[in-house]
Structure to design on (1190 residues):
């Protein structure tokens, strides 16, 4: 079978997504909080809620199939191994990887990024080599490179932003011209500004300069159709918990040719070929990177999450969120003294809205919104360099997903008026 | 159970009128020229920073003036303001003890007692029910204590110490 | 409160544990397999089954409380953070750690061991320094040291075994006398031989020699009362999934004074104090070691597991398993041509039974046992150096837990007779 | 669903009488002196190792004798035995192709066809239903192929190549 034909679920753009119907599939969204208020969950950028099918799949795993994977001959071990490896196959179809073996299961996206920094960069980069990041990165795509810089003398440089919150790509060009860049590591979608970066275009630049392109896909895979073959990056990292899946599971996708060259990160069971008392040899990928008992029940949940997303259609989800971006930006304009960050063009923006009142602290805003039943997050959202640029140590952030309806945005706007009143 | 727990606490217990008064018109806010104690404190939860100032008497024993500056949430600013009222006139040892006591009270490790000289402090009792906000309330208090320790260790003048509340539970 | 008073649940040795009643709490054990056969699960050494309460706690988490932890002000974030941090407190009581902050959540025991090797040993050991392991170690306590040896020139040496499968402690004494030993890393209980090592006694030797003692507690915490204060080791690692808890969660306990000195392992969100575009400073333990979104639902399950174990009483569990050791060793004697490994004395043996027929391969044995409904594991059990010593690349292993009854052992013995018949 | 799936497969399909015959009295087992092809194969799942031997005709094109040695489970030993029967008399190219074909059959990537000259091979079809055991059956076959490749690359004589089946799925 040709790899390029393994498309994700057929795009059903014609069937509009009804978020209130979708929300029926998410038990947590049915609850009342604070004396009977409806829960308006606008914190999906931090973690998504889970549909029944995902929760039930993990339940069923523990009721019927629980065992350790690999090397087991009994019926439960076989079931568990099948669940674990089928989830890998499913995931490879979902992001259109070339091979199932290119999917490495990690504990979260952060471990996935560290795996690249440790297993690849630590091995192949030397003092003076450059790693390019950007002003809008999450700490998960900064700190691993800082650790590397400290240990190996690698130099970390950042691309700054245009006023609208997009990358200054001309700076990337200039860095690449310098000839020392070995790795470019950027986020696909900003978790604060919502900016969708032009990954395919950047991949071309990076490869023309002979460098490796690492993409943080945490805020992209849950919200956009992602096809790693057409995006053209070399590594792509994301977390299950932000895409309807469970906590405790992440993914590193990497080209097999690169994974094969990488050193293991964690040492232990299941990742070795042979061990004597004083030395070891390692398995091929992905086994080499999956030391110890992996998150097995979690992969059962992940499969159910991928099925839910494919059934709904990633194109539908993106269409819904794009519409929500237009609606939300428009509605937030009506709130006095509120500054909303990030691009105004819905084409290059995901459903993430960081905002601030000039004179009211983000934590006070979030606290009062919570009192009204509206859950948003306040803080630096693990993006301190970006907040330095925004000129504010913290912002409040509302973030949407497939179950977010216009009514939820209306509730946000109403609650923001309450904040203004309290602080008047 | 969780709902019952949540019903008990109420935003009005957090954002009391007295608190808003201190937030809008904080006492002793702004740089305090000539202070022997100048310490920065950083709340890692939100990234907010305050600077706390202490001016000593001639013997270097008693805080004659206490001030603060910085940006923070309503709770932080109001609590900083009340801190300056509480600490003024105390010896360094008394001030250190008052900082410890306040922290213990906010963490529910000591009974909540309002010193008669600063009745407004009562407005902070509600913060106890919002664990994530406790650091907001204690920031300035911990910072002053760190400043006193630094001063006693001979680090006088413009020297600053980073006062970081961490999420490590201490018994 | 004095630390030494924080005892685990009161030992109720008087109330004998009835494994068949206990088994009622484990839904998976009620199923029929292979045309109506009762499932006889004898693979708890690989992973334990989970009681209803554990499965339900995770279910409830996703139905009611799911959110990302830390930095969240809304009601769900607060619930999730409380669940996550309370699990830490609960765990610190369970193993009698000095402080809750000494409990570092990892993805499994393997990551916990790697964290010590990477964060502590890589920082403080230099070429020529020695790490002492033993012949009976699991790969999780070998490969991390091999990786270190390769990178830093540290020397890894192994303690050999007496014929009965106990450690040759005189070899440890000799190594320690050499004056180069910086770390001793041993398992508390062997996952193949069942040997219970005298940890407190060894801790004294190691400390007298000025070295650090790392203990792999994977097979001990689920089965024995473990009190890290009286054991006296410096680091202690184990996995949730072997002690009634979920997959995807492990624990490193370490003395705070050592944790404070350690470098972070993974870089990312939640473990930093402050990040600029080119550098970062780190939080205090345990936050420093918990980068990214942690396994949150899993800690909800862990709390329920610890509650189940405390309610049952670890001393009762140990008493039950000790009785089972006597019974099983006796019963297995009746099977012709069967060799059973490990100590014969139940006082120093846990409920793990590796065995082999001289002329029948372990995988064939396990396969046929499975056909009879009896689930055992075959292979090297991630202990290749031990199997080299046993003279056999693989063994079959039956392992017991609190739900294992004498009837299960009888079923094993009966099925072993079937194996003999088939291969007659 | 899972139970139905399990009911379909039956231990008797795995441990067929023919298989036991080959296990108890394997063909061409033991070191083959003077073999040009000598290759070790290692099954990482269980740690079992077999050595495969090939003796060539004068032209160095055809396998005149094929043998094996080593320890393994019943399936591994029986399959190794049948492998020697299958490969004897084949050219190196034919033997390589036969190895690939057997692997594809065992992995359900090709229809299961029994070569008329080795009818016993039919006894291995049942192994397909036990994925963990497939490597047991393919070990000797893959090892021979690796030996042929090494021989063709000029590594004649006692040279050995490690043939490791990995758990990476190849499309
Ligand atoms: C003694 C021992 N150490 C370490 C491990 C590794 O544990 P995990 O796979 O959960 O990381 C195991 C279990 O497989 C074990 O039995
Ligand atoms: C853009 C981005 N990168 C990385 C991460 C880290 O993901 P995790 O915490 O699941 O490792 C997040 C989420 O917090 C994110 O939004
Ligand atoms: S939120 Fe920063 S001090 Fe309160
Ligand atoms: S179990 Fe090792 S070859 Fe079959």
């Amino acid at each position: 079978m040709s790899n390029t034909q393994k498309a994700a679920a057929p795009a059903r753009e014609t069937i509009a997504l009804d978020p209130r119907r979708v929300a029926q599939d998410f038990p947590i969204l049915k609850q009342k909080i604070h004396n009977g208020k409806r829960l308006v969950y606008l914190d999906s950028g931090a973690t998504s809620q889970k549909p029944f099918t995902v929760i039930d799949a993990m339940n069923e795993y523990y009721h019927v199939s629980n065992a350790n994977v690999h090397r087991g001959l009994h019926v439960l071990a076989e079931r568990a191994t099948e669940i674990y490896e089928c989830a890998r196959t499913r995931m490879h179809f979902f992001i259109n990887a070339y091979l199932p073996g290119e999917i490495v299961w990690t504990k979260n996206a952060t471990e996935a990024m560290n795996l690249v920094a440790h297993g690849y960069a630590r091995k192949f980069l030397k003092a003076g080599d450059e790693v390019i990041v950007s002003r809008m990165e999450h700490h998960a795509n900064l700190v691993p490179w800082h650790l590397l810089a400290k240990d190996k003398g690698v130099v970390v440089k950042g691309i700054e932003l245009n006023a609208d919150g997009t990358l200054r790509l001309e700076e990337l060009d200039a860095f690449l011209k310098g000839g020392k860049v070995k790795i470019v590591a950027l986020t696909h979608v900003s978790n604060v500004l919502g900016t969708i970066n032009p990954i395919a275009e950047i991949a071309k630049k990076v490869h023309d300069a002979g460098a490796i392109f690492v993409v943080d896909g945490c805020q992209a895979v849950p919200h956009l159709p992602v096809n790693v073959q057409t995006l053209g990056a070399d590594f792509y990292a994301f977390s299950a918990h932000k895409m309807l899946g469970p906590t405790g599971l992440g993914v590193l996708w990497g080209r097999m040719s690169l994974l094969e060259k990488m050193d293991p990160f964690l040492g232990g069971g299941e990742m070795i070929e042979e061990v004597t008392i004083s030395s070891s040899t390692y398995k091929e990928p992905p086994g080499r990177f999956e030391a110890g008992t992996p998150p097995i029940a979690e992969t059962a949940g992940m499969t159910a999450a991928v099925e839910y997303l494919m059934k709904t259609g990633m194109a539908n989800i993106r269409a819904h969120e794009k519409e929500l971006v237009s609606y939300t930006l428009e509605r937030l304009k009506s709130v006095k003294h509120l500054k909303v960050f990030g691009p105004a063009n819905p084409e290059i923006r995901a459903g993430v809205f960081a905002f601030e009142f000039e004179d009211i602290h983000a934590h006070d805003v979030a606290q009062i919104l919570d009192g009204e039943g509206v859950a948003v997050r306040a803080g630096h959202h693990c993006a301190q360099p970006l907040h330095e640029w925004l000129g504010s140590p913290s912002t409040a952030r509302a973030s949407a997903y497939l179950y977010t309806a216009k009514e939820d945005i209306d509730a946000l706007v109403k609650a923001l008026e309450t904040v203004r009143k309290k602080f008047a | 159970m969780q709902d019952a727990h949540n019903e008990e606490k109420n935003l009005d217990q957090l954002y009391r009128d007295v608190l808003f008064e201190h937030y809008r018109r904080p006492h002793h806010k702004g740089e305090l020229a000539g202070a022997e104690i100048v310490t920065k404190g950083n709340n890692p939860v939100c990234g907010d920073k305050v600077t706390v100032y202490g001016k000593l008497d001639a013997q270097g024993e008693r805080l004659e003036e206490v001030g603060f500056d910085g940006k923070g949430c309503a709770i932080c600013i109001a609590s900083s303001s009340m801190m300056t009222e509480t600490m003024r006139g105390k010896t360094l040892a008394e001030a250190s003890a008052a900082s410890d006591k306040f922290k213990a009270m906010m963490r529910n490790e000591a009974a909540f007692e309002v010193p008669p000289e600063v009745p407004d402090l009562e407005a902070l009792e509600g913060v106890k029910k919002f664990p994530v906000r406790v650091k907001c309330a204690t920031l300035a208090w911990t910072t002053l204590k760190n400043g006193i320790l630094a001063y006693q260790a001979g680090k006088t003048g413009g020297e600053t110490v980073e006062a970081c509340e961490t999420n490590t539970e201490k018994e």
